[in-house]
């Protein structure tokens, strides 16, 4: 027998909660407003006491965020976290990273056999500060990655609540790749170094086209397209098509303009 669809499992309240969080994210746009609205919406609609938002250019750098968003019991703990605990965070382990970057969500209970430093993090940092439960949601962003932490003394979620947060996670991750959590900065756009024809090729790569398909669209030989692609990588410093496609997408979202 097939498993029931998520909309057959969730209550109307849970589905409205998912929609409310997604709408809050859209209203936030990006930056600090996005972080605050997301944290408030998750706390309100999923019944979580304390929600945090840590952002970094890469996954390991998330835990060294110098100015994360902290709420509730976590708010006064930034200094001690940064000084003593950020390297021991339960979500910094390779196991947690694999799960979070693959599925987008995990909880403390799902992380089996914590190493001693992370066990100490739970016993000596989380629990004494009223955080008996912990969960995290991973977001790929236009300017890096983020973890949304969820902490409470007791998190009284049932199976449908976990199903709801996983649905929310999938929806958020599909949208967050276009969102910048950091403040806007003026940076060197290496795509500006490309010729108009190279920009055309880069745009088609970002659309997921193969060299053969690009050749057909631009009425070029496949060998010519290969040369364009090699030159694009050389000029921009991007190492592969995925990295280039991400750069093109960020440029379009950031309104940096387009050639041609």
TrEMBL record:
Domain of life assignment: Bacteria
PROSITE patterns, per database record: HTH_LUXR_2
Q: Which Pfam families does the record associate with it?
A: GerE (PF00196)
Annotated keywords: DNA-binding, Transcription, Transcription regulation
Name under which the protein is recorded: HTH luxR-type domain-containing protein
**Would the keyword DNA-binding turn up in this protein's UniProt record?**
yes
- Per the UniProt record, the source organism is Nocardioides dubius
Q: Which residues form the HTH luxR-type domain?
A: 187-252
Is DNA-binding there in the keyword field? yes
CDD domains reported for this sequence: LuxR_C_like (cd06170)
């Amino acid at each position: 027998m097939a498993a029931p669809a998520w909309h057959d499992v969730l209550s109307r309240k849970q589905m409205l909660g998912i929609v409310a969080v997604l709408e809050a994210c859209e209203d936030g746009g990006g930056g600090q407003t996005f972080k605050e609205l997301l944290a408030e919406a998750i706390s309100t609609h999923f019944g979580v006491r304390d929600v945090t938002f840590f952002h970094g250019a890469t996954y390991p750098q998330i835990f060294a965020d110098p100015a994360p968003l902290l709420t509730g019991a976590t708010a006064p703990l930034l200094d001690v976290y940064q000084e003593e605990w950020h390297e021991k965070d339960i979500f910094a382990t390779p196991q947690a990273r694999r799960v979070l970057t693959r599925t987008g969500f995990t909880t403390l209970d799902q992380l089996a056999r914590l190493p001693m430093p992370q066990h100490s993090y739970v016993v000596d940092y989380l629990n004494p500060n009223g955080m008996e439960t912990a969960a995290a949601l991973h977001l790929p962003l236009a300017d890096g990655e983020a973890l949304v932490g969820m902490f409470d003394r007791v998190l009284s979620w049932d199976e449908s609540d976990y199903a709801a947060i996983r649905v929310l996670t999938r929806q958020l991750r599909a949208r967050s790749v276009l969102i910048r959590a950091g403040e806007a900065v003026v940076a060197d756009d290496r795509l500006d170094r490309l010729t108009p024809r190279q920009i055309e090729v880069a745009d088609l790569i970002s659309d997921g086209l193969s060299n053969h398909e690009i050749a057909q669209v631009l009425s070029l030989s496949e060998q010519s397209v290969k040369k364009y692609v090699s030159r694009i990588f050389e000029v921009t410093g991007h190492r592969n098509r995925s990295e280039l496609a991400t750069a093109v997408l960020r440029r379009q979202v950031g309104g940096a303009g387009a050639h041609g």
